[in-house]
Amino acid sequence: MQNRRKFIQQVAAATAFTGLGGMSIMSCSKPVTKRITVLHTNDVHSQIDPLPSNHYKYPGLGGFARRASIIEKIRKENLNTILLDAGDIFQGTPYFNYYGGEIEFKLMSKLKYDVATLGNHDFDNGIDGLFGQLPNATFDFVSANYDFTNTVLDNYVKPYKILMKDGIKIGVFGLGIKLAGLVNKDLYKETKYLDPIEIAQDMSKELKEEQKCDLIICLSHIGYEYKAEHDMVSDVKLAQKTKDIDLIIGGHTHTLLPKPTVLDNAVGEKVLINQCGKSGVYMGQVDFYFDALGNKTSLGRSIEV
Amino acid sequence: MNTKYFTGIIVGVLLATLLFSCKDRSVSVSKVSAKQQKIDEALPDDKAIDSFILPYRKHLNETLDSTLCIAAENFTSSRIGLESSLGNLMADIALKQAQSVFEKRYNKRIDFAMLNEGGMRADILKGGVTSRTAYEVMPFENELVAVELSKEKIQMLVQYLIDQKRAHPVSNMKLSIDKSLNTVKDLMINEQPFQKDKTYLVLTTDYLQKNGDNMIFFKDPLALYGTDYKLRNAMIDYFKSVDTLKITLDKRIHYAE
């Protein structure tokens, strides 16, 4: 309780200084906590309206109009909010079959999504079908392990995107699942799939050491965990074999985690994995509190999830 | 020099210095908290978003809900012996619709069709049949494909049907099973007795071809032919082409008396 009170005071102080033309001079000398709110969805699968009330698993849940109102509410509480999606935006309702993804991208733009990665179903109308819908998206797509060099998506999908919120530098990179066997080659064409773990190691190095990001998020569509197929790469393996990633936002396996999984990464630091089922039935929210004292080793980080 | 202007510069330099020194200080995460936000009816609809969706929803519902033909009875996947009214309809539609596409593209004829019982996700109820009906029965994007199978693979396929004891939909084949021996009593394909010296072209979906429902006999066929024709679209096209859907129960798979 003590800590919470102290935290509220700090936030109040930070807010007051932000009022001074955005230049919080005192943040150098006094401890000021900043908060970044990360909101995320995955595998929305063209679920524009709520699921039917007789749905076998998630009756009546989801829907863009409701999601929009809760996002708006959270943004009012914290201006420093980012909104991400971990892929499989397309396919699952006739909205996709009839409009080819137009309504999905337009709605995500209206909800002010910042960044999304690509899932296998986002290739269901072919790489050209996806390319054709890009003008409807005001947000960015990231994928670090799909090499689009010889495709129409070359230069349209970047490995990562850097977002700045309240002086906090956030690096978001994307990872996709192996397309061969899941998607017809005629659809993904010359897209090359690269090893997610190797690429994630390169990305975290680039974002941490070169770009000096304060927060690194991986948008992953490789799947949470494959218990039967031991060889398959997954978010759990990714978390354990990499470093400097703060949060892995997962997709593909439609896993509804009751709360984020906390694992030790390759150097024994904590990394979070979160995934929110499918169809937009839940939206994940992860709040990162930053200490401006730069005192990481002595303070550590408390994870209350 | 104007004093006010000079003071402005001093303050500017001071601010720049402070900001610069701030930039050098790294920030780090001290605390993380999380929650999963349930998206349910307790949350109000954002009116602007809802009115954006409305015309799409309206158009879609009108399109999906316009009557294409009439179902004379309920078609369900409930087993009647080793067949079902819906299964027979689905397999017959798949074969009829794919056959013309296939002949045009490959100049060959498909011998028979086989789908899976679990692939039918809803019933077709008596009354108006719409595109939405097709989406409900077949929500998946499965494409129709034809595989050329050896006699050994056909025998595996038939044994699968016998062992499973489920009403997997078939069309243009008749299988009579010796129940006590669990073997084939009689097998007719394309109205001809099964011939061991020829290969057969079998229509199924890409999902089953890739080992869905453990139909291993579809794997590594002698040849694989795509149609770029989704099973659901085949259903919609068929619904548009007829006035009435009528039940055919002809004991295409049955136990010999």
TrEMBL record, chain A:
Q: Which Gene Ontology biological process is one annotated for this entry?
A: nucleotide catabolic process
Q: What is this protein called?
A: Bifunctional metallophosphatase/5'-nucleotidase
Query: SMART domains under this entry?
Result: PGA_cap
Capsule synthesis protein CapA domain span: 37-279
Q: Name one GO molecular function term.
A: 5'-nucleotidase activity
Highest taxon above the source species = Bacteria
What InterPro entries does UniProt report for this protein, alphabetically? 5'-Nucleotdase_CS (IPR006146), 5_nucleotidase/apyrase (IPR006179), Calcineurin-like_PHP (IPR004843), Capsule_synth_CapA (IPR019079), Metallo-depent_PP-like (IPR029052)
Of which family is this protein a member? Answer: Belongs to the 5'-nucleotidase family.
The record ties this protein, via CDD domains, to: MPP_UshA_N_like
What are the UniProt keywords, alphabetically?
A: Hydrolase, Nucleotide-binding
A cellular-component GO term for this protein: outer membrane-bounded periplasmic space
What PROSITE patterns does the entry give? Answer: 5_NUCLEOTIDASE_1, PROKAR_LIPOPROTEIN
Automatic annotation (TrEMBL), chain B:
Lineage here is: Bacteria, Pseudomonadati, Bacteroidota, Flavobacteriia, Flavobacteriales
Q: Which organism is it from?
A: Aquimarina algicola
- Span of domain 5'-Nucleotidase C-terminal: 81-219
PROSITE patterns, alphabetized:
PROKAR_LIPOPROTEIN
Q: What is this protein called?
A: 5'-Nucleotidase C-terminal domain-containing protein
Q: Name one GO biological process term.
A: nucleotide catabolic process
Pfam families assigned: 5_nucleotid_C (PF02872)
Annotated GO MF terms:
hydrolase activity
